[in-house]
Amino acid sequence: MKPIPFNKPFIIGRELSLIADAVAQGHLSGDGAYTRLCHRWFEEKLGCRKALLTHSCTGALEMAAILCDIQPGDEVILPSYTFVSTANAFVLRGAVPVFVDIRPDTLNIDESLIEAAITAKTKAIVPVHYAGVPCEMQRIMAIAAQHDLLVVEDAAQALLSTYQGQALGSIGHFGCLSFHETKNIISGEGGALLINDARFAERAEIIREKGTNRSQFFRGEVDKYTWVDIGSSYLPSELVSAFLYAQLEHADEIVAKRRSLCTAYATRLAGLQQAGHFRMAAFDEDSNGHLFYILLDSLDTRSRLIAYLKKQDIHPVFHYVPLHSSPAGRRYGREGSAMHVTNDLSERLLRLPLFYEMSEDEIARVCIAIGEFFAG
Ligand SMILES: *Cc1c(COP(=O)(O)O)cnc(C)c1O
Predict the structure, then answer these.
(1) How far is the CA of 154 from the centre of ligand 1 (A)?
(2) 6, 55, 57, best to mutate for ligand 1 pocket (most atoms within 8 Å of CB)
(3) pTM listed for this prediction
(4) What are phi and psi of 274, to 5 degrees?
(5) In this predicted model, what pLDDT tens digit does every residue of 258-296 receive, in sequence order?
(6) Is there a single domain that holds both residue 256 and residue 245?
């Protein structure tokens, strides 16, 4: 039988011909015509003030940390149940990540625990929209306003999800997107920083261009191109932007397909959930179908189910090792709340295969195999 991988990168439209066009235009470095098209697409579609493509979401988070003016010893509040870059970007600036537990329903940061984790050193809150399901942004933005904190949305998984009608990534002061090949819309590696507060727009351009005023120089706003601030090289090549733009042309279609795959999983697995074998990902009307998980009853069941599916060439994955208990998390961070939900759920969560070209038949095969496992 054909293997069912966890993820499979895909091409949907003009990716290769737009790359050929970028080559023909003779502009391969960053910030050419395709990068500008992508910027405009994000600004119009998501309603953010300014979008800047980066080489990764990791890069976008690092830029956000610089823009938050993080100084050594400052604290940043974030969930422990997330990818390492959410914390690392701030640790690179000398910050202490303060980990807060997640909600058992969405696996997003538990907003009711944030205020107790705030100290005089807190600079920012970094909510992560896990699985593309929105955090409680209204509450989080209110807490931030009250304590004069900045909000950086890690929207790596959340492109085209909404919260109360607003695009995720466009609500906090900054939003960070990923186009890594495991995400919904891909360019291999890739990301974007969304800047929603005009105060930060000019400095963001400078940080992204190695700390120079190159962008202003090319617009004719300054007459010399020089080193003016700290920075690094965060922009992608036009080859990557051309690939990304071709995917953006089909963005709604990609999201619709992923949502329909999630619905197919939910329909086919409803009986097993009802029988008490696991709990499925909460289906959210406003989210983008980024991933589909089940929560099993124990680590042992998860390990046995993975082994059973692997024998049938079906390849689910699990994540994350909670950051508060990871070697680097212990060295650089601290716990800002008890971690009961994070510790419990991270051992039991299993992500099922999900990719754009997946067929209903493949969904059926995964669900039948899971049913056989529980039938004994
Ligand atoms: C994928 C991901 C990242 C990192 O994205 P890259 O583009 O690979 O750097 C960061 N945070 C979360 C929550 C992610 O899922």
Answers:
(1) 8
(2) 57
(3) 0.98
(4) -60, -35
(5) 999 999 999 999 999 999 999 998 777 789 999 999 999
(6) no
